[in-house]
Amino acid sequence: MADQDVRELTSDDPPVKARGLEGVVALESSLSFIDGQKGELIYRGYDIHDLAEGASFEEVVYLLANGSLPTEDELAGLRQELRSERTLPDPVLDLLRNAPDDAHPMAVLRTAVSALGLYDDEADVMEEAANRRKAVRILAQIPTIIASFDRIRKGLDPVAPLDEGTMAHNFLYMLNGEEPGEAAERIFDVCLVLHADHGLNASTFTSRVIGSTLSDMYSAIPGAIGALKGPLHGGANREVMRMLLEIDEQGADPAEYVKERLAQGERVMGFGHRVYKTMDPRAAILRDLVKELSEEAGEMKWYEYSMAILDTMRDEKGIDPNVDFFSASTYYQLGLDPDLFTPIFALSRTAGWTSHLLEQWADNRLIRPRAQYVGDRNRSFVPLQER
Q1: Which one of the listed residues 120, 197, 280, 324 is annotated catalytic?
Q2: CATH number for the 236-333 domain, one of 3.40.50.2000, 3.90.190.20, 1.10.760.10, 1.10.230.10?
Q3: What is the rounded CA–CA span in Å between residue 104 and residue 268?
Q4: 316 to 109, 256, 279, 313: CA distances (angstroms)
């Protein structure tokens, strides 16, 4: 953004009030840009459609962290770093084994990532090189946490990570205990690319607020995971799949189902966006993936349900789907349990969170907004014995 668009406020300036901080520019970033009117998303200057079509997730990880797409040697180096850090410390694996089987996977992920810091000798080292190494470690180990917990809660032994293959390949292998097919790996990799960053959303802002205090990465990333857990942020994709499954179980007409929910004043998850005023570009890409997966499986119902809901919401409310809407049926058709959808979102978004932290620390200032006080004034204090 232009320099004149942002200025430093002083204590003499009147407070700027915006509910939910909507429209407030809190900081500058060169990681990603959203044009809500055009439905445009770019990472470091590259359109999301081009990256989804041509770049691997690891290339996007490198791009976000370094500002440029990697050469073949740079990509090979990053992939080797990630592969070398996939194994969890034994105490963290024990933590997963001792977690309740019915624990929320996002709560387990948040706790396990925090625990990783206990076994990292560089946890509190704030030099840039150390923070970059920690970013790689966290990103490499989150897939192992998610896959290991899912298998443990199902009474299965965790599958040790591979020392080869892409992140998408390794995660699906650890989750299912078998090599994924090429189509599944490719589509999952695209999903990771699409979720890697998205401006100053709630979880990213949370990570940067924590980082601005000069706290460590093992504090900031669990904070971001906690924000993503909420159903108005990353948790919406799970709710979308619950809706689709309910429609299927009831044999309901999707359009009538949605109209009934709207008539009852209920929210239809996966629609509307704080920034986009047209269709989320990531949703458009995922819509095509859902159709492709449905055609390959010879079962079109999830695609047909989704399109019927999309048309109904446009007709009834004039709003378009966001990324959560089509990611739900994409993940489900890849064989992923619905309560893993948001942890997978976190897996991908860690690339953005860690890159935002590196950007924050490169020119840090404590993030300290103000609240407008609306409480009582001039109340007379009454001693305890007289109340």
Answers
A1: 324
A2: 1.10.230.10
A3: 22
A4: 38, 11, 16, 5
In this structure, what DSSP letter does residue 379 have?
Answer: P
Which residue is catalytic, options 35, 233, 288, 339?
233
The pLDDT of residue 37: 85
Among 331, 341, 349, 350, smallest CA distance to 195 is for 349
280 belongs to the catalytic site = no
Tens of pLDDT, residue by residue over 319-366, are 988 888 999 999 999 989 999 999 999 999 999 999 999 999 999 999
pTM for this predicted structure: 0.89
Task: Tell me whether domains 41-181+197-230+341-362 and 236-333 share a fold.
Answer: no
The domain limits of the chain are: 41-181+197-230+341-362, 236-333
pLDDT score of 16: 65
Q: Is 7 helix (H, G, I), strand (E, B) or coil?
A: coil
Which pLDDT score is estimated for 3? 37
Match 């009582």 to its residue by tokens: 376
Integer Rg of the chain from CA: 22
Catalytic residue among 169, 198, 273, 356: 273
Low-confidence ranges of the chain (pLDDT < 70): 1-23, 274
| pLDDT at residue 317, rounded to an integer | 92
104 belongs to the catalytic site: no
Distance CA 201, CA 113 (A): 20
pLDDT at 15 (0 to 100): 62
Q: Which residues pair with 42 in a beta bridge?
A: 33, 47
How many CB atoms are located within 10 Å of the residue 16 CB?
12
Q: Would you call 45 exposed, middle or buried from its count of C-beta atoms within 10 A (0-12, 13-18, 19+)?
A: exposed
| Superfamily of 41-181+197-230+341-362 according to CATH | Citrate Synthase, domain 1 (1.10.580.10)
65 CB-contact burial (10 Å; exposed 0-12 / middle 13-18 / buried 19+):
buried
Q: 190: Cβ–Cβ under 8 A, 6 or more apart, which residues?
A: 52, 285, 289
233 is annotated as an active-site residue: yes
The pLDDT tens digits of the residues spanning 270-315 come to 887 767 777 889 999 999 999 999 998 899 999 999 999 999 999 9
Cα 212 from Cα 308, distance rounded (Å): 44
